[in-house]
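Board notes (copied after class):
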Amino acid sequence: MTSFDPGLIAAHSRRWSVIERASDVLRINRFFLRRGRPPIISSDPDVLVSPVHCRVAWVGSIRGDEVVPGKPVLGRQRLWSLSEILWDETLAQSFEQGLIFNLYLAPTDLHYIISPATAKIEFVRLCPGRCWPIIFWKIGEIENERIVTLLNLQDEQRLAMVLVGSFLVSGILFLKNRGDVLTQGEVIGGFKVGSTVFLIFGANQVTPLIQSGDRLLLGEPFARLVK
């Protein structure tokens, strides 16, 4: 597994696929980043809100570096280990016994990304991917482009948010840098085509307010911080 130094995400720092460039030229991405209903953010500071318009693919506890199920594709289950998701074995160990949310964005969903909480960005890491077709997905074989962000929440709690690009396109737009302070509900980026977001918390940090199969709009509550 390759190790990456924390850094800033600039437009020239990632490799664009041919399909991504074509979709930009044809303005197909305007559909995914079309104007939608502004998110309504809860006034309760302990409530965390969905960073994307999505379906909850899976919610579950983290036990070591066990496999985490992704969305089925062509009848095959996409599988991940926590260290593969984060591209960092040491960081993965710090979230053991915690909770993970797997959020899937369909092509019909809005593709904006907002901050789930008021937080400070501890680091941003770009993990380049190969953008291969989904028929080649097997555990440990294909790792699509992703951006791993570590957010410092209130009371020194941490949230790892992993943005995974879609096959062939990848296309993740991330507008913030290490050290930035985010306001809950603030737009921090977007996706091109369908994608996945993983939200990862430490042990006894949050209580889920949703379950697998639920639909979430931007800004809807999905978890509450444990005091």
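Comment from the instructor: The helical segments are 18-25, 29-32, 82-86, 89-94. The chain is about 10% helix and 35% strand.
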